[in-house]
Design a protein that fits this description.
161 residues; alpha/beta
């Protein structure tokens, strides 16, 4: 089974509880990686609004705060059954950036704990790293939402056990 080596960097305070939830989320996310991949790497930056706004402006030309940004290291890992080019062993997935203040605002809006919203954003960003993009079409959005729901369900079951 594949595993994700999660490197968490932060420019804001991060609780031990949030770190544990993110580590569990990484174990769940690893379940959908190609079986050839034994170890993958994912960098996660947890930051404030100004930092994510700057990154969003620099890389996406959008001068606004957002909740999560994804920077894939691979062109696409979507069709996980037909990825012959992957060598057995290690694979870099890319980088995720999550704004904790934005996640906190969304958690309040959706009546969730901060950890729940951050895990949701982690899975959302992770799917972008695999090559999914909800902005392409309504069909793509539904597909991505279904995959997010599947990952969140697996996460909830693992947390309960």
């Amino acid at each position: 089974m594949a595993s994700i080596q999660l490197q968490i960097n932060h420019s804001v305070k991060v609780s031990k509880k949030l770190r544990l939830w993110l580590e569990l989320a990484s174990h769940v996310a690893a379940e959908v990686l190609p079986t050839k991949v034994k170890l993958s790497h994912l960098n996660l930056l947890l930051c404030g609004d100004q930092r994510i706004k700057t990154i969003n402006r620099e890389f996406r030309k959008k001068d606004k705060v957002t909740d999560v940004l994804s920077f894939p290291a691979q062109s696409s890992l979507r069709d996980l059954k037909n990825i012959d080019w992957i060598q057995p062993g290690e694979l870099s997935l890319g980088d995720l950036v999550i704004s904790l203040p934005q996640a906190q605002r969304q958690a309040r809006q959706f009546k969730l704990r901060l950890e729940e919203e951050v895990v949701h954003l982690y899975f959302h960003g992770f799917l972008h790293l695999l090559g999914y993009d909800h902005e392409l079409s309504a069909k793509e959005e539904k597909m991505m939402e279904a995959l997010e729901a599947k990952l969140l369900d697996r996460f909830a079951k693992k947390r309960a056990s």
